[in-house]
Amino acid sequence: MHCDSGHDDLTMASGHDDLMVASGHDELVEMFSWARDRALRWAHPGGTRGPVNVDEHRPRGTGEGVYLPSYWAGYAHRSGFYLRDFVHQAAGAHLLGLAEANLTMLRRFAASATAEHGRRPVWAFNFDGSYLSIDYRGPGDFVREVPAVFELVECVAQLHRWTGDPVYVRDPVLRDYCANAIALPATARGTSIFEGVASYNELGGEPLAVAGDGLATQYAAHLAMAELARARGEDGDRFEARAAELRRHYEEDWKGARGFTLDGRPVTGWGAENSFFMPLKGLRDDPAYLDYVDAQASGPGRPANVEAWTYLPDVFFRHGRTETAWRWMREIFHARTGGHVAGGLNGDYPEVSFTLVSQVVAGLLGVRPDAPANALTTLSRLPAEIGWAAVSGIPIGRGTVAVRHDGGESTTLTNLSGQVTYTWTAAFPDGSATTLEVPPGATVTAVRD
Question: Helix axis angle, 350-358 relative to 322-334, nearest 10°?
Answer without folding.
Answer: 150
